[in-house]
Amino acid sequence: MEESHTVIADLADRVARYAIPMAPGTWGWGSYFRTDRSVVELAIASGNATIEASGVTRESVDGLVVCTSSFPPLVDDHAGFLGAVLGGLELSAVSFACGITLNRCNNLLAGLHLAKALVQAGSHRRILVVTADRVGDEASRLEKFALFSDGAASCLVCDDERGADSFDMLASASAQDNGVLGVRDQIDSRLAIEVNEKLERATGIPITKVTALLAANLVRPLVVMKERQAGFTSDQLRTGNIERRGHCFSADPLINLIDLMATGEGESDGLYLLASSVPGARHGVLLRKT
């Protein structure tokens, strides 16, 4: 269900608590999406849509990576969670499944990094990577750095090209500052620069050649400042989904890419960088449109 930020309970009190002006246009507060569906239901809905769109058989999918910040807190419930996702997706041939959660809003890109390595190593042919999250407490819907949406996104990482919406995954990279993890609440653009350099070393492609950067939908001043500090130009940034979608946890870069392609702006052979930063870490995945 799509909602306006104006319906958030105690909006004025929250803004006062954060000591920021009530300036929705500045921050990029617009719509957000709320659902009563569970994380499992969101993951199944997105994963099924991806499999059906790809045209692959479910029996050919041999790996599953589930990314979320909301895994069951009790270990005894983990098997049931995974079994429900696998059952809902009807993935009977999956021989490897794992969950990714410690990367926070970088979870999806970390999952893509892992899936890429497994496929390149030849141990798996087709891995479904799905991320799903929802806000459990409406009191945390609006944070100083983002307006959160419930949602999910997924894609297949394959050893062959599949479907009209295929991309070559040219490289993935990450950078981390262990000294500030959980200590300082600040995104460091130097980590983004480090990821850019790693991607260029792997591909020979400098960031100046990137057609579009698809980043996390945090408040606009923060996104623009940090990505410009990392070397991207304003022409490379795509920030319209900050108002349209809100911050869908780690799904933002993939959702933003899908929406960009739907507008017709996507270029054949275009270069697209999925990127996300949290305090102490940065992940990036460089794609070429096939």
Strand order of the largest sheet: 4-3-5-8
- The assigned structural class equals alpha/beta
Give me the strand/helix succession. EHHEHEHEHEEEEEHEHHHEE
Question: In one word, what is the shape?
Answer: globular
Key features?
290 residues; alpha/beta; Peroxisomal Thiolase, Chain A, domain 1; 2 domains; four-stranded mixed beta sheet; 9 helices; 12 strands
What do these coordinates show?
The protein has 290 residues and is of the alpha/beta class. It contains nine helices and twelve strands. The protein has helices at residues 11-18, 24-27, 39-54, 78-89, 107-120, 189-203, 220-229, 241-245, 252-262; strands spanning 2-4, 31-33, 63-67, 96-100, 126-133, 142-143, 146-147, 151-158, 167-176, 212-214, 271-278, 281-289. The strands form four sheets. Strands 4-3-5-8 form a four-stranded mixed sheet, with helices on both faces. The chain has a four-stranded mixed sheet with strand order 9-12-11-10, with helices on both faces. A hairpin with a 2-residue loop joins strand 11 and strand 12. The mean pLDDT is 95.
Topology:
Blueprint: E1 2-4, H1 11-18, H2 24-27, E2 31-33, H3 39-54, E3 63-67, H4 78-89, E4 96-100, H5 107-120, E5 126-133, E6 142-143, E7 146-147, E8 151-158, E9 167-176, H6 189-203, E10 212-214, H7 220-229, H8 241-245, H9 252-262, E11 271-278, E12 281-289
Helix pairs in contact: 3-4
